[in-house]
Design brief:
- The complex is a heterotrimer of chains A (242), B (274) and C (264).
- Chain A is α/β, with parallel strands linked by helices.
- Chain A is built from 9 helices and 9 strands.
- Chain A has helices spanning 54-61, 85-88, 95-104, 111-124, 141-153, 171-188, 199-205, 223-228, 233-240; strands at residues 3-18, 24-39, 43-47, 68-73, 79-81, 159-163, 191-196, 208-213, 216-221.
- Chain A has a 6-stranded mixed beta sheet, with helices on both faces. Chain A has a 3-stranded antiparallel beta sheet with strand order 2-1-4, with helices on one face.
- In chain A, strand 8 and strand 9 (216-221) form a beta hairpin.
- In chain A, helix 3 packs across helix 4 (111-124), helix 3 (95-104) packs parallel to helix 5 and helix 5 (141-153) runs parallel beside helix 6 (171-188).
- Chain B has helices at 49-56, 83-89, 101-104, 111-122, 127-140, 146-150, 159-171, 189-206, 217-223, 241-246, 251-259; strands spanning 5-16, 23-34, 38-42, 70-73, 76-77, 94-97, 177-181, 209-214, 226-231, 234-240.
- Helix content of chain B is 38%, strand content 23%.
- In chain B, a hairpin with a 6-residue loop joins strand 1 and strand 2.
- Chain B is built from 11 helices and 10 strands.
- Chain C has 9 helices and no strands.
- Classes of the chains: A alpha/beta (242), B alpha/beta (274), C mainly alpha (264).
- Chains B and C meet through loops of B and helix 1 of C.
Chain lengths: 242, 274, 264
């Protein structure tokens, strides 16, 4: 199996000015020497509490923040799904337009071909053709997240980065979206970097697990093994909280 | 009314009149709350669970609840008593905490002033007595260094600390009933567990009845003995947590239970066996 | 209920504006007397069938003058709002979206312009450009830019950090595309409201400037000019002030009601 993504010794720091009158800059180290890899067709869970730096990893991989270290990727750019599906979809545009744009921006000129692909995708994520004419506010939270996933897959990425994709959804909807992601992962042979704070979700969904605390990986391995025999003190605290 | 029942909600209906056609969000809500009991109210967004809680806390407009129904507390119907009487019960005997502690706290006021406020409104204690009480309650919600925290502003505290402050504010009048509307949803898991533990402790020490509202059935099961499941404004199932988990009657409850991600190993969860 | 009231507001406002539009159009179509034709025999003629609104101190037909005046006031307001909106949107979008140094510089200039009352500012421009209809449009237009820029900037600032903008960015959309195709449609509601309110202010500003004698030049009529001229004969011929005043009220009321209906 090949690696889809390889991250080596990733360091990210921000400069922050403190103090009102006599401000001095403080360098905040968000990630300190993070290394991991995702293999083809693997779902990697990235778990940590708020402020642990898990979203910063995603941003670094996508090149949205300056970083030190190595991020080695397949030439196909990864796509991203965010936590809040309502905010991720432009409220002034119809679903069909939103999906079509992903293709248009990739330079696909033929409108007929594009609309065929859009139709294919809307079915793939479990929605119907009629949804294409609706505005985001006319869909439920789960449906919106389906659209976001569909749009992310439009560019046929090898890697999907999902940042808390089910945290804003109701539990029954959560289960459906996770099932959809699993399904798509198998059908399209995707790799997924699944960022979450919910250890219960990660346990069943991911093939591998990384636990992050204050920008450092404290534990890594197969979730089944990690949950049974946690080595790090923080992992134990986390597991006792669920 | 039976001896130990402190709150009885009968046939509560909540209707909103914002649109031309009135919209009913809660139908025939019934609840009996015993002294010192923790009841869970579970449902997804839009199920009416928060609306029912707001109604009990007296935070909804009465015209939205005039269809039928009663909320009896201490032999009085909260829907018909005078505003002054209601105000003396609100925050005094029944108090409430919310999901987002940051927006529930006033950003420009120091913690001390916010925790102290109910004492100013409902009691005639002098300054020193109020200070003693605030200090005591802050210690009771397990805040480290309460003397220092008192002087701080909400934005200087972490989410977990802010929720503790909210609980302190709600508990300072030693209410009979505490309504907790998704108090842990906005918090990290480790903090979540601490807050749930704190609620449990307060319930045991002070015998405060708690209505715990959540969308998380597994969380409810660690804290509550009895649970009501709501869907689309109706209570679809209610009973002891154990019975509902082991033998759910309603299709919807089954779905909710199935949606909880299962972990097939024993994690030695410290909360469950308490 | 609230929706219905807002709808009524909109319908009422739109009807008033339609009525005014028809009124102005009628002035172009109906064979009325030339608004600038002087006839000494008709000096201060009372309203009658032949002269429905009466005649002014030069014996000019007030009806055709109000029609013509409403048109020029309307056109000046339109031009003003047009200039204000175009430049306001460009400046507001650029500063709100990019932020940083551009934002600092442009918004400080904006603040400086904003600090002057728009009439005073327009007066300053008029003194540079000289009086006349086009000059008024340009002067008022420039004076209106800051308020539009401020509104648009706020909306862009709010939207630029939304996830949907991040998504578009990740998919490779250019900044221009994000600004025009993604964010702009989301500001329309607020912008439309601002345009309608701006229209009102522009109508009033034009009237004020003509009242002061630096707007539309005599003998051409505008509502403000007519009011200013009628001032001297308020008791002798109240109809002279009444009708242009009424036209002004209707224009402002119509747009005001429409903008109310766009508020949340």
């Amino acid at each position: 199996m090949n690696e889809i993504l390889k991250v080596k010794d990733l360091n990210v720091s921000f400069k922050d000015s403190q103090g009102l009158l006599f401000s001095h800059t403080v360098t905040k180290h968000v990630l300190k020497g993070v290394s991991f890899e995702i293999k083809e067709g693997q779902i990697l869970g990235l778990v940590g509490e708020s402020g642990s730096g898990k979203s910063t990893i995603a941003k670094a991989v996508l090149g949205l923040v300056p970083y030190e270290g190595e991020v080695i990727m397949d030439n196909a750019a990864p796509s991203m799904v965010f936590q809040d599906p309502a905010g991720s979809l432009n409220p002034a545009k119809r679903i069909g337009w939103l999906l079509d744009e992903a293709l248009y921006l990739r330079g696909e000129k033929d409108p007929d071909e594009r609309s065929n692909k859009v139709l294919e995708m809307i079915n793939l994520v479990g929605l119907k053709e009629e949804h294409l004419k609706r505005y985001p506010k006319e869909l439920s939270g789960g449906q919106r997240q389906r659209v976001c996933i569909g749009r992310a897959l439009m560019s046929q990425p090898r890697l999907l980065i999902a940042d808390e994709p089910v945290s804003a959804l109701d539990v029954t909807i959560q289960a459906q979206i996770l099932e959809l992601l699993r399904d798509l992962q198998k059908k399209l042979d995707l790799s997924i970097l699944f960022i979450s704070h919910d250890l219960r979700v990660v346990y069943n969904f991911c093939d591998r697990l990384i636990i992050l605390k204050d920008g450092v990986i404290v534990e890594e391995g197969d979730p089944k093994v990690v949950y049974r025999t946690p080595k790090d003190q923080y992992t134990k605290v986390l597991l006792s909280s669920i | 009314m039976k001896e130990d029942i402190i709150l009885e909600v009968q046939d509560l209906n909540i209707e909103f009149h914002d649109h031309i056609i009135p919209e009913t969000v809660v139908y025939d809500f019934d609840l009996e709350l015993k002294e010192g009991e923790i009841v869970g109210l579970v449902g997804e967004s839009g199920s009416g669970k928060s609306m029912s809680a707001l109604a009990i806390a007296g935070l909804l407009s009465r015209k939205d609840m005039k269809k039928r129904g009663h909320i009896y507390y201490d032999g009085k119907d909260l829907l018909t008593i005078s505003r002054n009487e209601l105000r003396s019960i609100q925050g005094n005997d029944i108090s409430m905490i919310f999901q987002e502690p940051l927006t529930s706290l006033n950003p420009v006021k120091r913690i001390y002033d916010q925790v102290e406020e109910p004492l100013r409104i409902h009691t005639d204690l002098d300054k020193e007595q109020r200070y003693e009480k605030v200090l005591k309650i802050l210690k009771e919600v397990d805040l480290r260094d309460p003397e220092h925290v008192m002087k701080q502003y909400p934005h200087e505290l972490s989410g977990g600390m802010r929720q503790r402050i909210m609980i302190a504010t709600a508990m300072i009048m030693e209410p009979k009933i505490l309504i907790a509307d998704e108090p842990t949803t906005a918090l990290d898991v480790t903090i979540q567990a601490q807050i749930v533990k704190l609620l449990k402790k307060l319930n045991e020490q002070r015998n405060t009845a708690i209505i715990f509202i959540s969308h998380d059935l597994s969380l409810v099961s660690t804290l509550c003995r009895r649970v009501l499941v709501m869907k689309d404004g109706y209570i679809v199932e209610s009973g002891p947590v154990k019975a509902i988990f082991e033998d759910p009657k309603e299709e919807y409850t089954k779905k909710l239970i199935a949606a909880i991600p299962k972990i097939d190993i024993d994690l030695g969860n410290g909360l469950q066996d308490e | 209920m609230k929706n219905r009231i807002k709808n009524i507001n909109f319908i009422l406002g739109a009807s008033i504006i339609c009525f005014m539009a028809l009124f102005i159009l009628a002035g172009k179509i109906l064979p009325l007397r030339d608004p600038n034709a002087i006839d000494a025999t008709l000096k201060f003629a009372k309203p009658s069938l032949a002269h429905p609104f009466g005649c002014d101190n030069f014996g000019r037909e007030i009806l055709s003058r109000v029609m013509q005046g409403s048109l020029s006031t309307f056109l000046i307001a339109l031009g003003t709002v047009f200039i204000g909106t175009i430049f306001g949107v460009i400046i507001g979008a650029a500063t709100g979206y990019f932020g940083g140094v551009i934002d600092e510089i442009l918004m400080r200039v904006n603040d400086a312009i904003f600090a002057f009352p728009s009439i005073l500012l327009a007066l300053l421009f008029i003194s540079l450009l000289g009086p006349g209809t086009y000059q008024v449009v340009i002067a008022l237009g420039i004076a209106f830019v800051p308020s539009f820029a401020r509104i648009v900037r706020g909306e862009f600032l709010k939207n630029r950090n939304m996830d949907y903008v991040k998504c578009a960015r990740l998919m490779g959309a250019s900044h221009l595309r994000i600004m025009v195709i993604h964010i702009l449609p989301n500001t329309l509601r607020v912008l439309l409201n601002a345009i309608l309110i701006g229209f009102n202010n522009a109508v009033l500003a034009e009237a004020s400037m003509s009242f002061l004698g630096i707007g539309v030049q005599p003998p051409d009529p505008s509502l403000g000019r007519m009011l200013s001229e009628a001032q001297a004969y308020l008791f002798k011929a109240p109809n002279y002030a009444l009708f242009p005043g009424l036209a002004l009220i209707l224009l402002v009321l119509g747009f005001g009601l429409m903008s109310d209906s766009f508020e949340k």
